[in-house]
Amino acid sequence: APYDRHPSDLRAWQRHNATDEVFCLLRGNCVLFVAGNGEAPGEIEAVALEPLKLYNVRCGAWHARILDEDSSLIIVENDDTSDANSQGSAMTAEQHHQMETLVLSLGREI
């Protein structure tokens, strides 16, 4: 969905094995979640993106994001980024709970 507003809206982690990915919030609210770079998602970290600041997710790092409906986000990745060089991993109920706790710790409403 274009607007995953709540951690429970998210279905899967994503990682790109051939490139970094850069996020830039133009307006609104976005929380970026990163869950390590192991074979499976690990410990979850969250950051509330600040407008016009660049955030780099390293090659191989599991990540996801939530974005408010009135927000605008630029995502930059190599033009050959595809399912062939990326992976997904289904999110668990426990991961959703951890992400909700992290969002609240950032002072955000969920």
SS element count, helices: 1
Weakly predicted, low-confidence segments: none
Q: Average pLDDT value?
A: 93
Shape: globular
Provide the succession of SSEs. EEEEEEEEH
Gyration radius from CA atoms, angstroms: 13 Å
Category from helices, strands and their pairing:
mainly beta
What does the main sheet amount to? 3 strands, antiparallel
Helix content: 10-25%
Tell me the distance between the termini.
Answer: 17 Å
> How many beta-strand runs?
8
Q: What fraction strand?
A: 35-45%
Strand order, main sheet: write it out. Answer: 5-2-7
Q: What report would you give on this structure?
A:
- With 110 residues, this protein is mainly beta.
- The chain is 12% helix and 36% strand.
- The chain has 1 helix and 8 strands; from the N terminus they run ββββββββα.
- The strands form 3 sheets. A 3-stranded antiparallel sheet has the order 5-2-7, with no helix packed on it.
- It is globular and about 35 Å long.
- 24% of the residues are buried.
- The model has no long low-confidence stretch (mean pLDDT 93).
